[in-house]
Prior knowledge:
Strand order of the largest sheet: 2-1-3-4-5
Order of helices and strands: HHHHEEEEE
Number of helices: 4
Shape: globular
Amino acid sequence: MNILIGHHRIKFLFLFLLIISCGTIDPFKQSQQELDIKIKAFNFEFESKAFDRAARFVHPDLLKDFQQKSLKVFKDTTFLENTILDLKLFKDDQPVRLAPTDPAEDFNRSEVTIRYQVSILPSTNLKTITVTQEWIKLQDTWFVNPKIDSFLN
């Protein structure tokens, strides 16, 4: 158990250092860095079952649903691991390259495909769930559609 707590502290320190380093990056990379940090922070808090903290990243239209369903996820789900499989960026539903040649190019939506290894009661078997989270930028702030229903089966 102490190893897991130490592992989470290392992740938190890494996130903190990333946040501090964002101030010196060009606007595109800064926006990409901000999104990367929020994806990692949300998923860290979600997997740690710190749903009250994770809720700050949830799209305002989906917040009430997230808060209602998170109690069941808290009680029934054990998270073991996650892996980001894919990250796609979009500007007004048009794909944007991850390494643009034009630094002024921007994006306002992202799709992040994540594979989770979980155990969901009443089963004790390990289950793999693949979720594509949609992240949307509203008034310069990134919000997620967390697809919490994927963890309620």
